[in-house]
Queue: 2 jobs
Job 1
Amino acid sequence: MTVLTNKYIDHTVIILDDYIYCGCQKFQVSDLDTFIDEYNPSADLINEGWAKYTGELTSFETYQELSKHENVDVRIAVAKHFNTPVEILEFLSRDNDCGVQIVVAKHPNMPSETLKLLSTDDVVWVRGAVASTPKTPIDILWVLSVDDYCEVRASVAQNPNTPNDLLKVLSTDADAWVKVAVASNPNLPIDILTILSGDAHYEVREAIARNPVTPKDVLNVLSMDAYSWVRASVSRNPNFCKVS
């Protein structure tokens, strides 16, 4: 994660995740030789870029500078970076681009208080990002579970840390896609899973058929479902081979 320029390069170089972007060209970080052949940067530049990409030798001032960069992709890279200081994450949570807010909401070091503020954001996708984040406090998940938008409620339903009693509430949601999200949760209790396996919406039954925790007796019933999509998902479930 860095922005680099020097006299050997005509374009700003941005290292994001596993790629190097230079002008309209894109290279994998692992393919530095091709990048060097194409743009002939100095060895010092590459070494500096790699150190900042891996989070080494990156000062607070550097993070601060990049968090204000005009290029939204750079700000997103800062929001993703594992070593980004909490103060910078909090600053990025107030970014005017919702794409940055969505990414920063999912950062494992995001403070709970900041997540709470983001959970009330006007943008549905920002609230959805908070709803899907494992670190989001349970009390916030309960609030988001009654959000007006089904996308947010579905994100709560998919969260691996959503408690069983909240999953039970969401399993009766009026929107079928929220129930699909519940049915896809790998921590879904067997009693709720069994009830959803008989849901009127075939998409919900298909999600149950795909869930790796679905027991063999439920899969056995779903293997005779009227909908081919459900039967196909049963055939791909790792537990299906155990069905006698």
Job 2
Amino acid sequence: MTGTLQLRPLGTTLGTEALGINLSKPLEESTFAWLQRAFADHPVLVFRDQDLGAPELAAFGRRFGTPRPHSLIKYRHVEYPEVSWLTNVEETGKVDWYGVKRATDWHTDSTFENTLPMLAVLHAKEVPSEKGGTMFADMRAAWEALPDARKQFLSGLTGLHGRSDGPSGERLYGDDKGFTENKYQEVAWPAVTRHPVTGRSILFVNPLHTHGFVGMTREEAWPLIEELAEHATQERFVYYHH
């Protein structure tokens, strides 16, 4: 670590501010290596006072691997399709109500894909005068706080994931789920997974994309999904980013 790079907790073990990094310029290898180590232990890293365009965001994302374009074509940046340009207002000034609803319920990105993303990079360009923040839930801490009997039960389950057909997906969108370039099939993931670097167990169930479990009926699975979502999003596990 160089003398200028620091980590500062933001009230919880989940939210952490990375100091001394300017993302508008290419990061040196030593700085990026420090950042990767920090990200393994602090899954929400905050970089304040950045003003990045699509080229800088794309370049930063590529340092972690091959970027994944947004499943909804309408949100892809024209010049840098791996960068999503999410807005609630169309060019005509009309409010995009699908955009308003987007991400207003708890979810883990892209669990309906055949390969899982390593991370998501979010950069606010224009925000409301009040509210409009983003919340993150620590699924490691949520798992660790479960009773042993519940852990044993969940460790044997395989979750079934779709694009927006979990309990909250149906509530938010119904049949209006937006046009995608690809047709997504059901994907199965263990209900409990492990972090690829630290090895820590992670509860891997979310109410937007997880719609069932292998061997369970929907009537059995949905109450369990919602129970786990309610447990994982208790205030003690949540970081709210202003």
